[in-house]
Design a protein that fits this description.
- With 285 residues, the chain is mainly α.
- The chain has one domain.
- The protein has 13 helices and no strands.
- Helix 3 runs antiparallel to helix 4 and helix 9 packs parallel to helix 13.
Length: 285
Amino acid sequence: MRRNASTPNWRKLLRLWALYGRMDLLWVLRDAGNFLMYVGTETIMSVAAVTGMWLVSERFDGIGHWSKLQVLFLLGYGATANGLIEMLFGFNFAYISRKVGRGQLDHLLVQPQPLWLALLTEGFVPFTGAAMLLPGGTLLAWSIHALAIPITPGWLVLLLLSLLASMFVAMGFQYLWGSLAFWAPRSAEEINSSTARLLTELKAFPLDGLSAGLTAGLLTALPVGFVAWYPCRALLGLSPQPWALWVTPLAALLFSMLASLTFNRGLAHYRKTGSQRYLPWGHRS
């Protein structure tokens, strides 16, 4: 125990990722039929999610000043960002309102590790969560090749940074709304289902033709523009501002800070009230 207590946090993080990744692999190898059905249906759903916008761009030779290949880059980027969330935050960690509203957060609080470490590791499902990441990454790589984008180490770093920032904007938005379940566990238990649906269904649209007010709303109150449109616009050179590449990481930092503040306030309230979803003998009310 003394040795574990002195282990650096980054080593614990890697060790727990390896543990949960191995458990996910064992689940896959135990029942290949179930896995193929799961991955097959998820892949079909992820392909269907981008097919509509792709067919529109194919029919009209692009959307606005976005060419067909640029639209494919946008679709591949959005699917990849969403796939990263599915892979890193499975088991409802991307839908934190369910964990809080159902009283399942107690299972994390009694563990001998920091809560943030559990939130970052227990949802790691690199095999069962790759259903959207694989087609999204393939589409992104193919569009980069077709667009003949000069691949430099700096551009790859910016692409990775933008993907991580988009993921953290989405997760910050989810945790910001999901924290309502601390105060209203029954009514807010499924609120993250609605907020996630808003982000995933709107992320594939280029937002250039919208009014300034509506665009501002889709970058603030509902930050769907940061999930794909704005960072793709900057990475493809469609934005005239040279600082546009850093806006999405800045938004990720802001949403992460707001989500952390709100979640911690909700957690302080939860420590006083406890779960309202369990009866004394342990059954959910």
